[in-house]
Amino acid sequence: MPVQKTTRKSLPSRHNPVLTARKARLPHPDHERPSLSQETSLEAYHLSKAARKHESHVDIADDDADDAHEQVVDTKTSRRILQLAREQQDEVEATGTNKQNNRRSTDVLHRKQKKQPVILESDDDDDDDEGNQFDHDEMDFDGMEAQLGINEADKAILEKFMNREQPNRQLMLADAVLEKIKFAQPNNTSAETIAAKLNSKVVEVYTKVGMILSRYRSGKLPKTFKIIPTLSDWEDILLLTNPEKWTPHATYQATRIFSSNLKANLAQRFYSVFLLDKVRTEISETKKLNVHLYNALKKALYKPAAFFKGFLLPLCESGDCTLREAVIVGSVLTKVSIPTLQSAACLLKLAEMEYSGANSIFIRILVDKKYALPYKVLDALVFHFIKFTRTEAEMPVLWHQSLLVFVQRYKNDLTDEQKESLLELIRIKTHYAVSYEIRRELTGQT
């Protein structure tokens, strides 16, 4: 039987044959490599770009180094200040026209759409301007006072513990600053004396800086203002800017700069001389505190020891701290984390201080943070309360509330003798709603 021949089916050709792929990899005669001169110019471009970047970093580093070496307002420092002022003025003149025209056209468009007046803002943008994030102009402090449960009778009791000879809070802040500088430096008693000992160009520059700060809302601060913390006589320079005329926005930015760049003892001086009177004047005139000043207090707590020594303790020692002032400052303490050591030292000073209603508010807030306090501080707080056993004065509800919070937090750390003394105290100084809770905490009743 003959063998049948089989026919092999031919396979389809590859989509991309090997020969075609090899040909594709061969250089096309029209595609030539770049010449040696082109490669050389390309390398030179990258090298010059890197060199320009390096030079910019060197310039920035040199500027920072120059700022760091400025310590006193001598001839060299004066030239540096004037140079910075001229550079900034040149930048404003070079770029101000175009930006102002663009902003004005944009503002006119919004005015037509919203029918609102045009508000011209600063031409510069501040990258670290944290004050722009606040949406409200004030805080709700009336609700805070209501939570304390204080009525008119309690306010009358608190007034008995306040200093009768209250200073005039309408006094200009500049006068208060000069009084404090006069106390620390008897030879420098007036703004004219301070200006006379400085270079006339420096006085002119910082007087103009003060005018800028009196209208400041947002944007970059003048460079000459940012170098003030590096100067030895920074208080005199700062006084030339008229701090009493600063806007709340400028005060916030100044507090942020000085709390970050000054040492603790110098930051304490800034809080005591400038920030304290600025805040008290604002509360006295408006019965509230601008949100930017409120956040300036939060920034001031960046150095807690300086804040307590330069702001909180002088406020209590003045003897005329109002309930509104204590509530506002106390709300700042509740929102900021404070180290135990500084809080314990502040509690010790408050306990040893002459009593006022503000003391009770601050003691209650700090005790309620539940720190592990040293026994010395606990003993001082116990004595702070039991010393009123021998007095006939009626105590306000704030005092009873602070005692209740203290007993709730530290009853397990008190000795039996201290508990007996406190029980005797509430038998003499009784409050219809609070004393029962204090007795229950001390005796362990349920």
UniProtKB/TrEMBL annotation:
Cellular component per GO?
cytoplasm; nucleolus; preribosome, small subunit precursor
Membrane-spanning ranges: none
Pfam families the UniProt entry points to: Bystin
Q: Where is the composition biased (Basic residues)?
A: 1-12
An example of a GO molecular function for this protein is: snoRNA binding
One of the GO BP terms on file: rRNA processing
| Positions with biased composition (Acidic residues) | 121-136
Renumbered to this chain, region (Disordered) spans 1-70, 87-136
Question: Signal peptide: which range, if any?
Answer: none
> Which InterPro entries does the record match to this protein?
Bystin
What's the family?
Belongs to the bystin family.
Protein name in UniProt = Bystin
Where does this protein come from, organism-wise? Synchytrium endobioticum
